[in-house]
Write a sequence for this structure.
């Protein structure tokens, strides 16, 4: 491979992985570069809640001295503090769980470690992965939100502290922070990645995914999490070999709420993808997914957090408390109706991909909003999460405040490899 | 209500619930009766891993002195040791987790407590809810298995130690032990009951449910777990008001493996339901569900237990270790294919209920097998679990060894209330 020209902490994960596998670079140097960056920047970005520096350095030395372990050999990674770790406390972004030490790694963490990844630390989650913000700031402008709920993971990757990080999405918690921080965020198809050892909120929706700086980065992570080697087939990333995907431009029924920055990114994408993309409208049955997603999430979250509500109400934020109370007012009868509707809508959604390989859709209303009081609106992610479809955010533009803007691609259920292949191609068109 | 004639510990849960709500009996007396029964019988049945006697007595006194809290006011219940409890250790049936003390109740436990139920103790799970047996014996014959993985919960309810108990099913872990122990076992529709705080094995399949002595008993539990009040509509249980359901007799493609006892129960049911039931065959697409269920369960369990396999292999049974290794050999590509097939099959399954309200199907091959080395075969449950349909086991016969035999009814997805209404009617026909 060509010699490394960037500072190590700025390498894409896939570039670092290749260099590590070829022993062109050492894991210990990459870990040190990330730790240095964390030391320099985390005092203002606040992406981490726990660091694992000594254990990470020791493991990196071991990895450098031994055989290549797997796809993530020697790559530092961070884990949203909603996922259990056997060697670091896990507090789910809530004072209720401050200092909790799980006995086991979450399955996703165990799989990354097995593939050779080096855990650098736990990253900030909003309170129980809901809307009440954590302390993380947007590395592009510290006065703006990084998005949530996977706030720390997105900010750390955006700021060069980590090449890869794990997050979760129930409404828009991977795609929105990826958009606000200007990184690639990947939400795999629902249920493809084990949620064992992850604080459960809404089982119809909760999905584990992650962040990187390129499509190839999250493909590495996705291959490890799903066990599907098609995600890292080198042909996916070979411009000569790969043919252009058929792209549906799906502005969604809420498009009128997208602001000028998202509209401009959309116009730019339409232009860059001329000849490959054409507009597609959601069928009538799929026009009201947002309201349904909210009802499903609220009902299920209220029940999943029943213990916390009964015994720790004083340690919950007023906004989460209100959400849980709203959720408890939704009847089980309504939820039964909604679960049937979700199953039907997921079936109907397959038709969207008869004439298209992927759909291009907005990720967020616009740039990261100013202030740290909210993490922004997951509006444009709710429907896709409800449908369980794989989604990937592609950053490629800047808004009026100079903050990152991008769009997401949505793929067919369980065809995550096709989504990533298309995303690599589309991202090249958008950033060339 | 009529005066109570049975010993308190033998009451059906719904009878006890009515008597408690009307203050015809006291929670403290019911709790004491169950604890006495446990003291007398558990040294030979081994249904419990942890008891909560003092806390249960104290809570019962409180409940007797205060207002009626909810549907389960004053009812003792047990919890399979796969579900977290904030006041009792939770070991998932594995030495790896011996003595683990969770910080929170599982959502299902919290919901039962909120409804006024009194936790008496944790019941035996097989090792990590897989096939390696726990110590529980079948209360009908101590030389026979109680079934698994919810072994202790089924045995405790069967033996009069508890009126209600929670369990989980991934293959056949509610219906099979219900069949072997001769109690009613209810597996709600997949995803209707929050699995928060339950050790995760296979998210496509894992379902929380429970055991009682009558359909009305598990309806109480189901209403609390799902929040759906239709499950306890008194009209469901009124012979005058309820009309006969349209019953499909679905012997399943593996019927030839049912033994003489199950065949005899089947013949008995056909006779009792003459005029209301007619044979129905699974469509061609649903003929191979068992193999698919096995592949989904093995793949997902192997990944969910990745940490345990990597770090505690010496504390896993040889059979579980082999299962995990088989699971790791299934590729993510195959699993993606299987997940698509599951979604398709769940869609196709809805057609089964166009001409039928419920399906009658075998629960187990026959009586509980002799010996404690295995917990029996979940064969007849695998397909329904894969389809995510609600199932209820109805005990009504005896086999050659005098052990309980019965059949299960299967309902339409998310129409759990219709299943229970039909089950009450069918159970009356079968047991009159």
């Amino acid at each position: 491979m060509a010699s490394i020209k960037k500072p190590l902490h700025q390498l894409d994960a896939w570039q670092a992985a290749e260099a590590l596998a070829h022993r062109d670079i050492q894991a210990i140097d990459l870990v040190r570069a990330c730790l240095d960056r964390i030391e320099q920047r985390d005092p203002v970005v606040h992406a981490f809640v726990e660091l694992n520096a000594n254990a990470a350095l020791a493991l990196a030395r071991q990895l450098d001295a031994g055989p290549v372990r797997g796809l993530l050999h020697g790559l530092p990674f961070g884990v949203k503090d909603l996922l259990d770790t056997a060697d670091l406390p896990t507090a789910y972004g809530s004072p209720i769980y401050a200092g909790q030490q799980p006995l086991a790694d979450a399955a996703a963490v165990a799989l990354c470690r097995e593939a050779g990844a080096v855990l650098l630390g736990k990253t900030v989650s909003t309170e129980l992965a809901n809307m009440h913000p954590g302390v993380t700031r947007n590395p592009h402008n510290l006065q703006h939100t990084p998005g949530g709920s996977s706030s720390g993971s997105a900010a750390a990757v955006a700021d060069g502290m980590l090449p890869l990080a794990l997050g979760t999405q129930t409404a828009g918690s991977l795609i929105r922070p990826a958009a606000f921080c200007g990184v690639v965020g990947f939400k795999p198809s629902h249920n493809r990645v084990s949620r064992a050892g992850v604080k459960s909120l809404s089982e119809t929706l909760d999905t584990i995914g992650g962040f990187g700086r390129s499509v190839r980065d999250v493909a590495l992570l996705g291959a490890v999490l799903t066990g599907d080697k098609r995600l890292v087939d080198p042909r996916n990333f070979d411009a000569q070999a790969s043919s252009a995907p058929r792209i549906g431009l799906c502005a969604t029924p809420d498009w009128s709420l997208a602001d000028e920055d998202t509209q401009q990114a959309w116009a730019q994408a339409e232009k860059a993808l001329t000849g490959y993309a054409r507009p597609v409208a959601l069928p009538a049955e799929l026009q009201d997914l947002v309201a349904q997603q909210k009802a499903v999430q609220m009902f299920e979250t209220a029940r999943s957090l029943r213990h916390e509500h009964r015994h720790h109400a004083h340690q919950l934020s007023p906004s989460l408390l209100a959400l849980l109370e709203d959720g408890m007012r939704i009847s089980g009868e309504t939820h039964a109706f909604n679960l049937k509707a979700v199953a039907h809508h997921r079936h109907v959604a397959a038709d969207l991909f008869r004439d298209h390989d992927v759909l291009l859709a907005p990720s967020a209303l616009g740039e990261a909003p100013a202030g740290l009081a909210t993490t922004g609106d997951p509006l444009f992610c709710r429907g896709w999460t409800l449908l369980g479809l794989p989604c990937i955010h592609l950053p490629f533009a800047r808004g009026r405040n100079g903050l990152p803007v991008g769009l997401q691609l949505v793929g067919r259920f369980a065809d995550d490899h096709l989504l990533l292949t298309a995303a690599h191609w589309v991202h090249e068109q958008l950033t060339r």
Remarks:
- Chain A has a mean pLDDT of 97.
